[in-house]
Design a protein that fits this description.
Helix content: 40-55%
Strand content: 15-25%
Number of helices: 11
Bound molecules: adenosine-5'-diphosphate
Number of strands: 12
Largest sheet: 5 strands, parallel
């Protein structure tokens, strides 16, 4: 029996047959002389050992398909049916069994038709020789193996996609619950505490009032954290749609949102001209807003100085937000990009510890990286890239950025 199993999928990691193995061939041809000739040619084949069986009719060929053949050589013209009809039947019954069509003379139309119907190859009988036959069979087997592997990959991809969309649905439900259901009880605690304060506030002792304030404060913080969590989950799930924009416009939007904060904190903002980029403008504006907001928030100097930087490092643009704030010790450089990780206590600076985690998600969704360089007491420089295809042109020289 054939040593090369027809179901190549099961032969995972197995290479093509060597001389020690043999390939089992079924020849379908109504001419016995053709069988004798093919058997002889296969014996002389240089690369592989072959074992050949012969059937003269289409019906016998189809009956034989239950056998473990590795490949079929099929005559294009049979007495009772055309080779094409038999080919279609074989492809239907055994889609992974390679079939090579043998034609009396080369005929382009027949050849194309045979390939379209699923033949692995075609050979004109007049051109048959050991090398050609051996090579054609080996290619057909190799192709069938690769096709099967591809099909398996596609199947796995489909399963993974189905799993992913199921997970996304679950995440979607969780985000909905986090934004609505989880926050509802917290809002009730806050409202009823206010009713309590209104109704009996004047009778409360100083300590009781303090406890009430702690309770409201804790509920508010919990509400902020739940909202932050929902924001983070939304950012993880978001698929970005890139459009080409000037990043200066994104910076404009970010600064517009922060007008009051910039004014009251007495900050100076210096802006480098930004390049154009293929990105999602809203996410990009939020990214700048988060980083500028932090630069203002974590500044211990009377005059915050914020520099929005844009420098070209090789093929990439590196953008950044530099401040003269309190700085960050090197051991915390990575930590601060994880959700809910803060270096400041609540009584020093309000926050949920989610801003930089969202910045990281936005940058990574654009194929880029974000990091910080800093010196404690002197300031920090948050830098990011947008991946190889992120930036398109320079504002000044209009250079193509993509490599
Ligand atoms: P949040 O500001 O809500 O705490 P972030 O994720 O934006 O959350 O920041 C995480 C932590 O990183 C902050 O709590 C702060 O300790 C530190 N940090 C962020 N930006 C700066 C900055 N520009 N200078 C110094 N420390 C910073």
């Amino acid at each position: 029996m054939g040593a090369v199993d027809t179901e190549f999928a099961e032969a995972k990691g197995r290479s093509m047959p060597s001389k020690e193995q043999f390939v089992r061939v079924l020849l379908v041809d109504d001419d016995e002389d053709m069988y004798i000739l093919t058997r002889q040619l296969l014996r002389q084949a240089p690369g592989t050992s072959y074992e050949i069986d012969w059937v003269p009719t289409a019906q016998e060929a189809l009956d034989e398909l239950g056998q473990q053949y590795d490949i079929v050589l099929l005559d294009y013209v049979l007495h009772e049916a055309t080779g094409l009809e038999v080919l279609r039947e074989i492809v239907r019954k055994r889609p992974h069994l390679p079939v090579i069509i043998l034609t009396a003379h080369g005929n382009r139309e027949i050849d194309v038709e045979a390939l379209n119907a699923g033949a692995a190859d075609y050979i004109a009988k007049s051109e048959l020789n050991p090398n050609l036959l051996d090579r054609s069979i080996r290619y057909a087997l190799e192709r069938s193996l690769k096709l099967r592997e591809l099909e398996q990959l596609a199947d796995r991809l489909q399963v993974a996609n189905a799993r992913l969309s199921h997970k996304n649905e679950e995440l979607e439900q969780f985000i909905y619950m986090a934004s609505h259901d989880f926050r509802e009880p917290l809002r009730q605690i806050m409202s009823f505490s206010e009713f309590l304060r209104r109704d009996i506030g004047h009778t409360l002792s100083g300590r009781a009032e303090q406890s009430l304030n702690f309770m409201v404060g804790a509920a508010k913080r919990m509400d902020d954290l739940v909202e932050a969590l929902a924001k983070l989950l939304r950012a993880s799930r978001k698929e970005i749609t890139r459009v080409r924009v000037s990043l200066d416009q994104c910076v404009d939007r970010a600064l517009e949102e922060l007008t009051e904060r910039v004014r009251t904190s007495n900050a100076t903002i210096i802006r480098d001209p930004m390049p154009h980029a293929r990105c999602e403008p809203t996410s990009m504006a939020h990214l700048f807003q988060n980083l500028i907001d932090n630069a203002l928030k974590y500044c211990d100097k009377p005059h915050p100085e914020i520099h929005l930087t844009a420098e070209k490092g090789g093929q990439k643009w590196i953008l950044g937000v530099k401040d003269n704030g309190c700085g960050i010790a090197q051991e915390h450089y990575n930590k601060i990009f994880s959700p809910f990780r803060r270096l400041h206590r609540r009584d020093q600076c309000e926050g949920t510890g989610i801003g930089l985690a969202i910045c990281k998600k936005v940058v990574e969704a654009h194929g880029g990286e974000i990091w910080v360089e800093s010196e404690v007491g002197k300031g920090s420089h948050f830098k990011f890239t947008l991946g190889a295809t992120g930036f398109t042109t320079n504002t000044t020289d209009d250079l193509e950025e993509t490599p």
